[in-house]
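pasting input
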Amino acid sequence: MVDLSVNQVRGPVTLKSISDNQGISLSYLEQLFSKLRKSSLVTGSRGPGGGYVLAKNVDEINIAEIVLSVDEALDITECEGKQDCKDGQRCLTHGLWDELSIQLYGFLSGIKLGQLMRQSGINNSGGPGNRQLVDSPSLGKPGNEVH
Amino acid sequence: MVDLSVNQVRGPVTLKSISDNQGISLSYLEQLFSKLRKSSLVTGSRGPGGGYVLAKNVDEINIAEIVLSVDEALDITECEGKQDCKDGQRCLTHGLWDELSIQLYGFLSGIKLGQLMRQSGINNSGGPGNRQLVDSPSLGKPGNEVH
DNA sequence: TAATAACCTAGTAAAATACTCGGTTATTAT
DNA sequence: ATAATAACCGAGTATTTTACTAGGTTATTA
């Protein structure tokens, strides 16, 4: 979707070109874009000169909708939110994973495709320069903390 | 680990009892606890009356250390942080997944085993009542938003 | 000495993920 | 008209991860 955002300025983008650029198989891309189209995130046009374009502005598409479109869920509870994880009851850690799912959705829905496009390095506009994704500068990376 | 937290007040907890309580196979638990022991999160004692106890206070063990111990990583980038996801370079979405990994670690490391134990319903102390995990009340659940 | 329970290694089953294969249909350019 | 293009579609397969099984050995306690 970032590739499409960047390249659609020159008209519809073929899956073949995305396949070549990103090293993802054409057939697999077709399956992904079939879901993206059904979610009204992209529109396809057939025949020569055809391809895909985004169905909305890059700043009106957030990452959560993209992931939900191709993955179907961002709920990481074992029971998929049904609260029957342990013998029909909530398991001991249901609340933890439920809350994490909410945080996950909050994070991904807050980031727009346009942000990823602008910080991708391939700048096709004369607009403002690249900005960072979020402003949380000094959160230690996992694995770097002292044990 | 929540089961162990709750039940260790009556002395070492056998994996057999956790297996029965949580519906997880004994052999699988042995593999998990082997890793937890090597990470100094639990200590085992053999023979009759033996079992496992936590190696630290319930409020000194966070969920990130537990997950890192058994899963090995909380880095969800394709390249495991090596930044060589696309032909030796950072892929278009590396920054997104890198930042999400940081958020993920931040969330899980901020939650202590003691918090999960206290809100598990099985309250073995006369201490303060159950509290919520985090105070972010009105973040809509994934799937409930208007499309 | 017998029972218990951790400790250990190797192999297997199930599920999710990524991908292949072989088409058809619609659109455009010649 | 016809050929090329590129989306569209369904079924099957390979790979990887996750969870689990099997069959032991070793240490500790009653």
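fyi Residues 24-25, 27-28, 31, 45-50 of chain A lie near DNA strand C (CB under 10 Å from a C1').
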